[in-house]
Amino acid sequence: MNKITSFLGRLLAHRALHVALVVAVGAVVGVVGARVLAGHGAGDPPQAQATAGDVQPVGGLVQVADLRAEHPDYIVDIPNVDFAGLSESQKEEAIRLLNERRCNCNCNMTLARCRVDDRTCPRSPEIIARFLSLIRTGTAPAEAASQMYGEQGAAPSARTAAALAAASGKVVVYNVEAGDSPSIGPKDAPVTIIEFLDFQCPFCSRAEVTVQRIMREYPDKVRLVFKQHPLVAIHRQAMLASEAALAAHDQGRYREMHDKLFTISRELTRENILKVGRDIGLNMDKFTADLDSGKYRATVESEIQQALSVGASGTPAFFINGRYLSGARPFEQFKPIVEQEINGKRPEFVVGTNVKRDEPRTASKPQRPPEDPNKIYKVDLTGAASQGPENAPVIIVEFTDFQCPYCKRVQPTLQQVLKEYPDEVRLVTKNLPLAFHADARGAARAALAANRQGKYWEFRELIFNNPRALSEDDLLAHAKTLDLDIDRFRSDMNSSEIDQMISKDMKEAQEVGATGTPTFLINGRKMVGAQPLSAFKQRIDAELSRDSK
Prior knowledge:
It contains 24 helices and 12 strands. The protein is an alpha/beta fold.
């Protein structure tokens, strides 16, 4: 605690970092700035069903009588949200906006509803924390809501010289020191990429594919430096993992530890980390002593401070010869920057101080016109696994990915739907393995192979209950558990016919505009995300009402 207090004191000593502290200090004590990343809205916590009664609001109940009367459907008592420091008018406006703005975790719920129905969501706490922090620093609630998602920039007078330079075609470069942090690649490489990472962050795990490709394609031109930035407010095991990585580095095994930690990113217990240490051949007496003594805690805290000092409050955050790139970006976004730096063709640049203030602001992108909620999509159900009567008046088509945590999260809801509408609903499943889930297509092939022996739903349950056990050996073990014909299962799993079925499902998903998982068609009408039972019931009841007319 003394180290944390000292750390916060050093940050507060720098007025220029005050806003960054308010937004991002959750990396140490419980609040993390929001980050908006591309891809389907998936974080990676396991499913945990919650109700409004599961979590008590922080700081007592919020009483906003006028808002309750005007909008009886609004959630006023939002769990684990502290409105301390806001005036009554600010509080009322904040609650209104939290009931209108949607979470970006692909749940298709408002931020307020997401806090009630999904307390494991990693996104809504970050977004709400940033939102309230901005209001406390004097930003109007409506402007703060826009800044949560970067929807509109500050007025020109509030922008820094670096931002104006960037807007005119220059690039901004940040002085981020590599120091003696772990690295791979030649130290005299023309390009140094510094990555701030969190071993429990699903986006850091996803970014590994890109990072590895960069190092393959530029083995002599790029040096990659690893910096620790555990977001402990939402990733409780991340700090210990970061300390373990540095302890392994002290024995010359950083990269091996780094890679193994990402394979167990949902299970970063002390026991599992010690097992990794044994597996990679560490001196376990030294490794255990280093972990238990907290020898590397100060180094990790120093690197957290280094990230926050330049405004990099989320992970992963990359600095390519000082040029900032955030999030799990594809290789194609790194390549032009890396090659400019290799070839000495960097555009004219200025030196920035804080990525949050210095990034160029642009006008809001034109919004897509809202999709017609009554549009009917049709897909071919031939050969698809299903539950419920063939002649049910309501057909729910599910596009799923076996590595998607939100697909897993919605399974109890789907089973409850079938229980409450045993004669009215048929559930049909289709496959949409997403590109960044390396094992999802193999799992889909295995599930379809099990379907040929009448055990699709049992096999599917085994996969969702064991999301990290998706190797071919794991899938074969599941098949043995279900007493399947293993030779037939293996043959079907690797057949071109089943692979073509998956490709057909993916093509249909593209045609109906299903870009993330899970996506549902309820009698052809689209619904996106791991929505609560109430959302399904509303749609089903509407369809039954139509059918009765």
